[in-house]
Write a structure and sequence with these properties.
This protein has 84 residues and is mostly beta strands. 8% of the residues lie in helices and 26% in strands. Strands 2-1-5-3-4 form a 5-stranded mixed sheet, with no helix packed on it.
Length: 84
């Protein structure tokens, strides 16, 4: 199934060269977990601070669960932000 995968801030450089506006369309398995997608793009788990599917946050304890991602979904990831 096809999804849109987005990386922001310091993670942008992990996207392939064909990415546009921090996003790339990718094909993933129907039972892919969020960690499967994160690992495919070599995003360190510690750097995947905010993980969203269509704007809904998924915590670390949910990211290994299959069946969360559906065709056409947008998976977006932000790293931790320092300062404050």
């Amino acid at each position: 199934m096809k999804i849109t995968f987005k990386l922001y801030a310091t993670l942008q450089n992990l996207l392939p060269s064909e990415a546009v506006d921090n996003a790339v369309e990718v094909e993933v398995d129907e039972q892919a977990t969020l960690y499967d997608v994160i690992d495919h793009f070599r995003v360190p788990h510690a750097s995947a601070h905010l993980v969203l599917i269509n704007g809904v946050y998924f915590g670390a304890d949910e990211r290994a669960q299959p069946g969360l991602i559906s065709p056409g979904d947008v998976v977006a990831i932000w790293p931790p932000v320092a300062g404050g």
